[in-house]
Design goal:
The chain is 0% helix and 49% strand. With 125 residues, it is an all-beta fold. The model has no long low-confidence stretch (mean pLDDT 95).
């Protein structure tokens, strides 16, 4: 079974930090671009960040630029989202997703094939 499992969510105060992990099982991430998405209550799911196969292309939604960092460790078959200076508006369920990619082009949010079940991040004082 192809599976992605997120972890690292929880309750944190504004200004705090969390690191989310996305571990792949049943496949290796070498030929996949990875995206992090989030869905807040009453809002549409949005792409937060994505990373290309070799980490040479990354994207961030404007609201998290300078605060979040996406990275991947293909040897560990894991992708991370380091979240610093968290704000209440970052509260959401965070999902990771993978898309099989043949080439080495830039990452995009569309067309993700495999999705995790999500991990809840709550930013509240």
């Amino acid at each position: 079974q192809l599976q992605l499992v997120e972890s690292g969510g929880g309750l944190v105060q504004p200004g705090g930090s969390l690191r989310l992990s996305c571990a792949a099982s049943g496949f290796t991430l070498d030929y996949y671009s990875i995206g992090w998405f989030r869905q807040a209550p009453g809002k549409e799911r949005e792409g937060v960040s994505c990373i290309s196969r070799r980490s040479d292309s990354t994207k961030y939604v404007d609201s998290v630029k300078g605060r979040f960092t996406i990275s991947r460790d293909n040897a560990k078959n894991t992708v991370y989202l380091q979240m610093n200076s968290l704000k209440p508006e970052d509260t959401a369920i965070y999902y990771c997703a993978a898309k099989g990619v043949i080439g080495l082009g830039p990452c995009v949010y569309s067309g993700m094939d495999i999705w995790g079940k999500g991990t809840l991040v709550t930013v509240s004082s």
